Amino acid sequence: MSFIPESYPINDSHKRGGGLQVVDSVLYFSPNSTRVLTHIPTPHTATDNSLKNPFLPAPNKSGHYAFDTVNASDYQSPLWWTPQFEWAAFIHRFATFEGPILGILNQYKVHEKEEKGFGMPLHQVRGWSGLERDLSFAIVILAKCSGTSLLLPVLPSIFGYKRFFKTEQEALQSIKRSREWFALWIGAFCYVVFAMEAKNKLHPHSMSWEDILISSGCHPVWIEGILASGCLEASAERSGVLLCLERDRHCIHFFLNNNVPVWYKWNDQPEYAAYGPTNEQRKTILDSPPEIANPKFPWVDFFAKRELENQRTESLETQEQKQRRLNRLRQPPQASGRVFEWVQDESETWIRQPVAKRFNLSTLEFYDESCIRYDSFRNEFDCCEMFNVGKDSTECFTEDELRTFECVDKVNESFSNPYETPVDTSMLDDTLPPQAASFSTVDALESHIQSFCSLQYGFTGPLPNIHPIQSFDIAAQKNFLKLLGIEWTEERAEVFNRGSTAAVRTFLDLLASKNFSRISKDEWDLSLEHRQTMHLNARLKMIRKLVAVDKIYYMFLLPDNNNWHITTTCASHALMVCRLDCSYNSRDVAMYMVNQGMPFHTMQASKTLSRAPPSTITTALRTPQRDQHHVFTPKDFEVFCARLLVYTRQSSRAARAALKRGGYVWRACNRVAFSIILDGPVVWSTDPDEYILAVDPTSGIEYVDEKLTEKELELFCGMYNCSTGRGLQVAKRSWYPFVGSFENSGQDYGMWTENSENVFKIFCDNMPTRQPLPISKWTKQLKKGSTQLRKILAASNEVADKLIEDVFVAWERVESCDAILYASLRVSFSLHV
């Protein structure tokens, strides 16, 4: 790269991720990788200085090129550096095609067409062809702007994804190889992007690569989708490069700065000492025998553990839940289930990788029935060819034919328009949460009202038929049900002809006005004289108050073996936990709360967690840009949903934290398996923005849990920076309300209710015409919620906190008295002796 300045030495602190190794009896050093190289390729510069193309097979005797022996996996190991093939270092070793743009590569369904044979449907061919064109066009543009000169491989279409074949297996094989070849082009795209960024560091006022592409006709939504894919993340495992220190060291830092593995031959020549290993790395035993991997496949233990969990779930199932599960077992819902593939990562370790829902059917069709396992408890499919322990094309190409598969600079070429492609409706799926309430009869509604108020507020109600029926006009009926998060309908109005409803209304009015003394002692379990008084609740004494900088948390030390502890964000929810079934352990309580969309934490003692560096995911968190006159469409929303889905797969920490946040952040995660929260905090990040920390003042123990950063919260609400036309000024708009606007508003019930879901569905149903709103309008809309609800929640928290504090003080006195009594008995005993 001509614009890169002269090289400079590598500091020892930048070599900690590297190591020495012997390959083919030669010592190689990498300052940033410990990956074991199995072989060293021959240089692609011949003895006569002519350049060999490592991406072309050797021609046969007829001068034709057969690609039967060429596979994308051949380039997952480093090649020797040359300016023309520098881009090959950026190839992803095990590419995953995520997001709304690259995700189309997961669509490889095969169909049979009369008289032609087997091949991809036309709309899928067009999608792949459009991506092929867009990538090549973007690479050419950015290569010119960055001043790089590169030789690109043949286009993926050379492997035949546009053609038809005699057999389905031949078609699948061709499509699979074409798909894998796209990884090389994505690697080349990453290279020119990083080259542009390196150049811009030397020339800060240059245009960004995004602006260059947009000015060339690329749509911002395409760039947004590429950023969401994760292909530009620094954490991506790339092929790497082999360098010659004497000749190529000027470009070492370009690779190191972009987290691309670098290797070079090492000797003790003094002039290269600054590029060599540290003293500790020199002492590494290079000839130690490698560890012998456990031959047992990881899914053996995985499915054994799942079997035990399913047995536990089955023991807690209601009859209705059991029937739904058996129905799924008889006819597994392939379209709506969650599909996973077991694949090998860069270290040849088997990992369980989720499949986007829109690719469910094509993935399941790809595998034989014997290679698929279905879990009816979770509605999940696991696929792997190894669960059940083709012939390539022999087509050849002349040099002239090869040119039709080369990337050429076509001045009339243009980017495809993402807005012209059909919206993937599966990404707009607004499936109700698993535990969403439904009231088929008035009796069911009455029962729900009673149980809701009992669990949330401790209202146990009067004896049957004691409370008189009250008169409610329509407005009063709607306001009452609104307090409980229930939609009013004419059919449901019948519930107001029952005395129990009037009793609940009286209780809530007294609670909101803080007339606690007027609430009947027989109807409120916070009363000491109540038959089920909370003062004697066994869980109450297990609560510990945790103090953070600006927040109080309520943590439960339940008697189970969990490393983490259920922690509520408000006192009223702590009492709700006390009222749950006494057989519930921490995991049961966590699943109950996450199913209800309640905010909570899984706090764990900080000393039991290892520290870990902060998240390296950055590109997916870049706030998308839109110009002043942009009109949002369902395609914009589809891309947002896809970005969010990909990010929750990339960051399990963010997925767990989002599910525990409640509100719209929780609702946006309806595609994430709720059971992920049972993992608790896995590590303790060194970035304070990624965790919350609170202290138990009585013991001094620190507890931590994961949380979302501000940038992540912006992603989960679908934030955009929209130009206002006034210089660099932007207006922030979002699909969902930002947490600062929603939390503690008149629509925040502290859980997800029927009303919450109805409002959410209004947003989704109006998506074809709805535009993201600025924060000010979200705040104004949320003020339309219930003021009475805020009063009820505030009063409930106030009285709950007082009860918890009183009980805690009482237990301290009891323990103190016990200690004094014990001490006096010891003194008495010693005097007696």
Distance between the amino and carboxyl termini:
91 Å
**How big is the Rg?**
32 Å
Form type: globular
Q: How many distinct helices?
A: 25
Biggest sheet: strands side by side, in what order? 14-15-16-17-22-21
Alpha-beta classification:
alpha+beta
What percent of residues adopt helix (DSSP H or I)? Answer: 25-40%
Let me know the average pLDDT. Answer: 86
Report the sheet with the most strands, covering strand number, pairing sense and barrel closure.
6 strands, antiparallel
Uncertain stretches of 5 or more adjacent residues:
289-295, 825-833
User: How many E-type strands?
Assistant: 25
Strand content: 5-15%
Quaternary structure annotation: single chain
Give a verbal description of the structure.
By secondary structure, the protein is an alpha+beta fold. Among the domains are: 1-45 and 77-91 and 238-287, no CATH class; 94-237 and 392-422, no CATH class; 301-387, no CATH class. Helix content is 37%, strand content 12%. The protein is built from 25 helices and 25 strands. The strands form 7 sheets. Strands 14-15-16-17-22-21 form a 6-stranded antiparallel beta sheet. Helix 13 crosses helix 16 (571-579) and helix 18 packs across helix 19 (652-659). The radius of gyration is 32 Å and the shape is globular. It starts with 18 loop residues before the first strand and ends with a helix.
